[in-house]
Amino acid sequence: MTTPSVLFVCGRNAIRSPMGEALWRKRFGDDVSARSCGVIPAAFVDPFMVAVMLEEGIDLEDFSPIALNGVGEPAADIVVSLSTAADRTARDYAARTGAEFQAWPIPDPSETGGNRDMRLAAYRETRDAIAARIAQWDASLKSA
After folding, report:
1. Are 42 and 108 in contact, with CB atoms under 8 Å apart?
2. Rounded to whole angstroms, how far apart are CA atoms 2 and 77?
3. Helix (H) / strand (E) containing 81
4. DSSP 3-state assignment of 10?
5. Which of 36, 57, 60, 64 could be stapled to 17 by a disulfide with Cβ–Cβ 3.0 to 4.6 Å?
């Protein structure tokens, strides 16, 4: 079975959704269609996100956040919302484009306080939670 195309959506396209896009490609290869966007995109990518993704060998320093209306065509097979705040917008987009909708509510690590090490730990937890959901999805597909 071929790997479906996926669109990861979160609030700002600065942390969770670019992680999802990059981790999907890491799992399934660069030839798969994986994109990401935000409901209201940030002006720049989050530096803590860049740091924890570099730990996985993924360089997102030049990533540029985009809005959902900037995603373009073709529509994805699956639209994954990583933020409860983005669920409605992502669900509506999936319905309009005929895509399957999935909600993977992953906490926003930027809301974590504390020192640098504590914040980086929160970003790692987010990265690892997204990677685990992708692995779980992959395993369920293979067992079907």
Report:
1. no
2. 11
3. strand 78-81
4. strand
5. 36
Phi, psi torsion values for 67, nearest 5 degrees: -85, 160
119-124 CB contacts, 8 Å cutoff, 24+ apart: 119/48, 120/48, 120/51, 120/52, 123/15, 123/48, 123/49, 123/51, 123/52, 124/52, 124/55
Token code pair at residue 128? 């690892």
Computed over its alpha carbons, how large is the radius of gyration of the chain? Answer: 14
Task: Indicate the pTM of the whole model.
Answer: 0.94
Tokens describing residue 31: 């030839």
* Distance from C-alpha of 40 to C-alpha of 54, rounded to nearest angstrom: 25
